[in-house]
Amino acid sequence: MQKLEKFFKSHIYLILVSALTFFVWSYRFFIPSENLVSLTFNSMFLFSIPLVVILVLFKSTIATAPLLISCLFIIGFDADISTIDSALSGILNVILIVIGFIVHFIRFKPKFKLKSLGLGLLLASVSYIIPLIYTPVNEVSILLVFLVPFYLVTYLFYANTIDKNELNYLMRFFLYTSIMLSFQLIALMSDGFKDFKFLHDLAAFQQLHVDSPAWGNVNDLTIQLVLMSSCMIFYLKKYKNILPWLYLGWMGFWIIISDSRGSIVTITLYAIGVAIYVLFKGRRHQRINLLITIILTGIFMYVFRDLVTMVYRSFMDTINFDDPNGMLTGRLTLWFDPEYGAVTVFKRYPIFGSGWNTPHWFLNEQNRITIYHSTFFQVLATGGLVGILILIYHFYEVGKLFVRKRRFIAVKAFLFTYLLTQFHGLIDNTQYMIHYSLVTLIAFAVIDNANLTDIEIGVLGDASVN
Question: Keywords on this record (predicted)?
Fold first, then answer.
């Protein structure tokens, strides 16, 4: 049992989970489309079975988090609200995981408290059920109404079953998962790479097309890369070598190549913020590594100056204040359309909003709900004034949690990337979106249980890189 527990806490375990996640997701490239859905859901047992084993055998549940998150990132097909009809094995996976949770409760009898964020999530869960009273009820609205309660249960489960400081494990999970997601991003460019010889070949480079990862869009993927890049600051503090800087360069390069404008801005702000911190607050070896990184970046930009110029012009060409709706790729229509826009929906249902079953008018060729690509407008339309007030209270709870745990460098690092991605969320999908919510809520649960021991306290700021 001790050897098994040690394995689940090891680098090897996290690397295996990440590699397996990428492999299953990559079915999309070599499995016929008619078999893709069933094979993907059948492969989910590779994650759900060890997840249940951990739930049944161990009191601490932190090692199940990578498996749970990976079940989201393996989806390599275009899922919509009708996919569940052909996903019996997916339902069986969910049932298996629920049974594991029940056995864990019976065996270890964890005492549940609301913890730092429970009240806000509970209020949000209730408020999003209320629109069922005055809006049409169907299988989609019933399914979606469980979304926020699912977030509540996930947070409460991990916040009450993680029994010690697991910040180091969280950062390690972020490291390997973000690297795996970067390889997903590279794989999505494969059609463009097949005729691509070298970075000087700009004609071929301009052929690069970034497809959707299917479990979300490209923006969802790059937002995860920025969010999980908090591990770079953690390892920058923990180790003296240049590897954290190379990690940042790797992530930054692929985010910029993805042409995801919001994430280009946030990863640039991230790099500038880290550089300024190291310059004024860092130690000698950190400043030396920063200088080496700047020199290497300068050399790269000079050698591939044509490429840099092309990417810069491509980005600047999207900035057109004469056509703000075009510049925001239709977001003003999403927000202010006189019939179905977020503000119009809010006016119809000003108190509790319309609920999550939003009309699929903007993408009416797809069997999916409409997402308003903004945290504020999404909550305004779906949650109304009450939803906005609950969201403000949730952010207040999050702020208090960060203040209480501010001694940890991992907490400071995650706060930085959390704020950057929430800033991005003003014009994109973050808050209440399933991938972003599960990753952040599990991180909050870990932070909630992070406590300093006498040994760890040491010198403030360096005491524990946990």
Answer: Ligase, Membrane, Transmembrane, Transmembrane helix
